[in-house]
Amino acid sequence: MMKTLSPKLLLALSGLLSAAAFAAEDINETMDAAANGTVSISNVAGEVEVQGWSRKQVEVTGELGSDVDELIFERDGNEILIKVKVPRHHGRRIASELIVKVPEASSLEINTVSADIEVDNVTGEQDLESVSGDIETDAHAKDIDVSSVSGDVVIVGDRKPMRSRLNSVSGDIEAESLAGEIEAESVSGDVEIVDGSFTRAAAHSVNGEIVFHAELLDNGRLDVETINGEVDIKLAGDISARFDIETFNGEIRNCFGPESERTSRYAPGRELMFSEGDGSGRVTIQTLNGDIRLCND
């Protein structure tokens, strides 16, 4: 005579089956790659961690969310595509953790929605974009373009000339030891550029402070603008530049010597124009509401 399973046992079995159905899928795949090819990575949610190594291979490890359709991992010539494919009407369990090892001279194109991006020891060009994730990377003398809508951006370079474009809508930007040309812009966040040397530098923020503690090279240009926030400029090395500084509602503190003047008898604004050295460079600083501090090391 067939025995009936107890309700408790049925409940336990149901729980085990549900857990198995919702379990994340482990991944471990490897593919041969060009030494200086392009690796494109797309992940909707979770995390993307990229590490450069000496092998001519791309390795992907980590976990896929249980609602993910599949991991696309394919090569076309010198380009490799890694994409977490999710259903059009996906559930909540799509967060996927990717650890990707690439040839260190690879160029990177990474796009995420709500996933953080972290890159280490990759010397090729980088184009990194996230909607609501933080981005952290190092840069090695190749152009870099980094953008996050609601996340922080952190870049560390090796002081070799390159072009950097850094953007965040509602996050902070930190750039350290970069060189060459840089554009950094945040709508609602602070911008900090330190320990670098530049021929061209621009830092803009609508609601946030701007810090620029770096060297402006001969014939260099520095443009700084914020609507609501303080500006702290400390120029390293010998200075040869013309300065044009203005704040509508704030003070100007100038360590070089000349003092600011009122822009009008009837308004609180102040301005300061002067030259240092041969005046070959150009420094323009503007803020609507905030103090400006200008010094040199």
Mean pLDDT: 91
Based on CA inertia axes, which overall geometry fits?
A: elongated
Largest sheet: 9 strands, parallel, barrel
How many H/I helices? 1
Q: What is the CA-CA span between the terminal residues?
A: 92 Å
- Which structural class do you get from the secondary structure elements? mainly beta
Relative helix content: under 10%
Low-confidence stretches: 16-21
The overall number of domains is 2
Helix and strand sequence: HEEEEEEEEEEEEEEEEEEEEEEE
Sheet with the most strands: spatial strand order: 7-8-10-12-14-15-13-11-9
Strand residue content: over 45%
User: Radius of gyration from the CA trace?
Assistant: 25 Å
Beta strand count:
23
Notes on the protein architecture:
This protein is mainly beta. The chain has 2 domains: 109 residues, no CATH class; 161 residues, no CATH class. Helix content is 5%, strand content 62%. The protein is built from 1 helix and 23 strands. The protein has a 9-stranded parallel β-barrel with strand order 7-8-10-12-14-15-13-11-9. Strand 20 and strand 21 form a beta hairpin. The longest helix has 16 residues. It is elongated and about 85 Å long. The protein starts with 6 loop residues before the first helix and ends with a strand. About 2% of the residues have low confidence.
Give the secondary structure arrangement, pairings included.
Blueprint: H1 7-22, E1 25-32, E2 38-53, E3 57-64, E4 70-76, E5 79-85, E6 96-103, E7 107-120, E8 126-130, E9 135-138, E10 144-148, E11 153-156, E12 161-168, E13 173-176, E14 179-186, E15 191-207, E16 210-228, E17 231-236, E18 241-249, E19 252-254, E20 261-262, E21 270-276, E22 281-289, E23 292-296
Parallel strand pairs: 2-5, 2-6, 2-7, 7-8, 7-9, 8-10, 9-11, 10-12, 11-13, 12-14, 13-15, 14-15, 15-16, 16-17, 16-22, 17-23, 18-22, 19-23
Antiparallel strand pairs: 1-3, 3-6, 4-5, 18-21, 20-21
